[in-house]
Amino acid sequence: MDLGIVGQAVGLFAVTNIDDLVVLALFFAQGADHRGSARRVVLGQYLGFAAILAVAVAAAFGATFLPETALPYLGLLPLALGLKAAWRAWRDRRYGGPEEEDERSGAGGPGPLEVAAVTFANGGDNIGVYVPVFATAGTGGMSVYAVVFLALVGVWCAAGRYFATRPVVAAALARWGHVLLPLVLVTIGLLILVEGGAFGL
After folding, report:
1. Which segments in the chain show pLDDT lower than 50?
2. Residue among 58, 54, 24, 17 at smallest CA distance from 41
3. Which uninterrupted H or E stretch holds 14?
4. Which of 19, 56, 109, 162 has the highest Cβ tally under 10 A?
């Protein structure tokens, strides 16, 4: 395995996914009191990133599943999820806590498909960066990038959970997480839409 490619892969992943750490910490904090929530966040992160990789690899080989003009509209996913999280936070505050169904089942926090949708939408711009790199790396180099990226997704999940469980951070997220999560998701969604020129913005 070429250590030069490994180093480039680590650097490329870190640069293109630094914002995911904040989102992951918020997701982990949201599910802190729910059984199996951390597992669902990790699963969702892997699903979302695997989808990013699949689209980037396919595009590097010349197959375009997502036209470039469609990428800005991925911002609708985190925007919708942010609005849903805001409504849920408002409902819980108004009616005194989460729905009884969540409490009975022990389920709660973000589901894997929610996390995957945010990860994929937030990584729409990553696809544009990965495609030319993959196309010039060849099949062997592309495989190295994919393995390193998938390993680093696990590191990112561990880091996100670490931040979410630090006493000071956890206290802040417990107090403000219900406000921060919708705000971050809506902001991400709007940035993707505006920067991509969706709807002529």
Report:
1. 99-106
2. 24
3. helix 3-30
4. 56
Q: CA–CA separation, 42 vs 183, rounded Å?
A: 22
Q: What is the CA radius of gyration of the chain?
A: 18
Contacts of 192 (CB under 8 A, 6+ apart): 72, 74, 75, 78, 121, 122, 124, 125, 198
Read off the pLDDT of residues 85-136 as tens digits, 9 standing for 90 and up. Answer: 888 778 777 765 554 444 433 456 788 999 999 999 888 778 878 888 888 8
Give the position of tokens 């819980």: 92
Long-range contacts of 158-163 (CB under 8 A, 24+ apart): 159/21, 159/24, 160/20, 160/21, 160/23, 160/24, 160/25, 160/27, 160/28, 160/41, 161/24, 161/25, 161/28, 161/38, 161/41, 163/21, 163/25
Cite the DSSP H helix spans in 96-166: 100-105, 112-122, 124-165
CA distance 200 to 72: 11
| DSSP structural state of residue 61 | T
Inter-residue contact 26 to 184 (CB < 8 Å): yes
- The residues near 23 (Cβ < 8 Å, ≥ 6 apart) are 118, 119, 122, 160, 184, 185, 188
Establish how many alpha carbons lie within 13 A of residue 145's alpha carbon, considering only the half-sphere containing its beta carbon: 28
Q: What pTM did the predictor assign? A: 0.77
